Amino acid sequence: MRRTPTPIDLRALQAFVAVCDSGSMTGAAKQLGVSQSAISQSIAALERDQGLTLFDRESRPPRPNVAGRALLELAGPLIEHAQMVSARIGDASHTGKMPVRLGCVDSFAATVGPELIRAVSNSERQISMWSGLTPGLSKQLHDRELDITICTQTTLSDPRIVEVPLFSEAFVVVVARSQLNGRRNIDWRTLALELPLIRYTARSVIGQQIERFVRHLGINSPRRYEFDATDPLLSLVAARAGFAISTPLCLWQARHYLDDIAVMPLPPSRLGRRDFFLLHRQGEWEQFAGDIVMLTRGVLDNAIQPSLARALPDLPDDALR
């Protein structure tokens, strides 16, 4: 019966990595600031605990064997994680509070995110922010790599995850102002017949959501231009290469194009809106999650929505709510 391996001692693992990096016990001792004897003892203890030989001792200098190479490949993430744990404990000790790891979809991080950071920076709370796509953020929350996630689709069936609705925004048609040529009676149906649809890629949740809505509307446009981000999408719209379907927050994220584009409403539909949610674990960070909800709605109501209304007067009143 194979015995259960002893958990790896991190100091011994650091010694092992140092020997591999430097090529000798002497070099490892100098690198870590300890005696050569201490390095030798750490390596011997590591091999004894794991029941494995980690070096080919017939080679000069000693090189890791198959087991040693496997350990070396895994050692970096283990040591990095241990250092991260130590740093977070130090942060908590210094501030009296654990830093919050907040993950947001890109359009939220680029628009509401700076205001959140500014508001939190005036308090004792420490915050770290990541951006990404909804599926990855949801997984990071599930794996405890994030404490709070702001995303546009809830895919977790974990009853320990609390889901708080944040806000909703409508999909709108986006077209170059110059494309309209003063035609005030033109609508989305006409555009769909005249121009190709410039899409978000299906890798993104917004791309998938828009594609469902497009099928619902009966728009049949070949897949010619697809982008992960709003900036290149709007650059083609502004260049009159086609029309797009996007959202107010995405437009505000790429607001340097607002002078060159116009928007049109689409028919009301349950498929025609994108919802944002705040997710956190039950019993964890509840007060801070409530603060984020309040701050987010304040930023939308007092800053982003009025600015969008001035820049895009044809934006529907309920486009962001």
Structure described in brief:
This protein is of the alpha/beta class and 321 residues long. The chain contains 13 helices and twelve strands. The mean pLDDT is 84.
List the helices and strands and how they pair.
Elements: H1 10-22, H2 25-32, H3 36-50, E1 55-56, E2 63-64, H4 66-95, E3 100-105, H5 106-111, H6 113-121, E4 127-132, H7 134-142, E5 148-151, E6 161-170, E7 172-176, H8 177-180, H9 188-194, E8 197-200, H10 205-217, E9 225-227, H11 230-238, E10 243-246, H12 248-253, E11 261-264, E12 273-281, H13 286-311
Parallel strand pairs: 3-4, 3-5, 8-9, 8-10
Antiparallel strand pairs: 1-2, 5-12, 6-12, 7-10, 7-11
Helix pairs in contact: 1-2, 1-3, 1-4, 2-3
Any low-confidence stretches, pLDDT <50, length ≥5?
none
Percent of residues in beta strands? 15-25%
How many separate domains make up the residues?
2
Mean pLDDT figure: 84
DSSP summary: helix tally: 13
Q: Give the tally of β-strands.
A: 12
CATH architecture tag of the largest domain:
3-Layer(aba) Sandwich
Helix content: 40-55%
Structural category: alpha/beta
* Secondary-structure element series: HHHEEHEHHEHEEEHHEHEHEHEEH
Which value, in Å, is the CA radius of gyration?
27 Å
Distance between the termini: 63 Å
